[in-house]
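Notebook p. 47: complex prediction with heme C.
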Amino acid sequence: MAICISSMLQVPSPALSWSLFPEIPADNPARGDKLVERLGCRACHGSGVEHGHAGPELVAALSRLTPGELEIQLCTPRQRHPASRMPSFAFVRAEDFTALVEYLMNLK
Ligand code: HEC
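Predicted complex, structure tokens below:
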């Protein structure tokens, strides 16, 4: 189950009180794609074709990660990379978080 467990959080972060894109079913890849866009992943990670400006190319990075590692990277990036400049996405609602992780793991 892809959710940020509060005990893993370095900084308590209130969850959004609304879901993003609730009109799209969670298992539809279009929702994951919209979440990646809205959450700004591509600003640092590039479009999926080019390298990002501030982070590794997403598909290449994902191919090295298990779903559990991806969840930790999204909840508490500094748990995996102590000097990480990647923000935590622990504020995302569980339903969106699950849709995001499933979408990303299917990109590999
Ligand atoms: C402000 C820039 C920034 C944003 C926004 C950002 N990232 Fe990152 N991300 C990084 C950097 C820098 C790294 C390199 C490793 C680290 O420092 O944590 C990284 C690493 C990663 C990795 C690879 C981790 C590894 O160990 O190989 C994944 C997967 C990832 N990010 C996914 C995402 C997703 C999905 C989003 C959007 C929800 C996102 N990132 C948003 C900067 C960012």
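Notes: The chain is about 45% helix and 0% strand. Helices lie at 29-38, 41-45, 58-62, 67-75, 77-80, 94-107.
Next step: compare against the earlier run before touching the bench.
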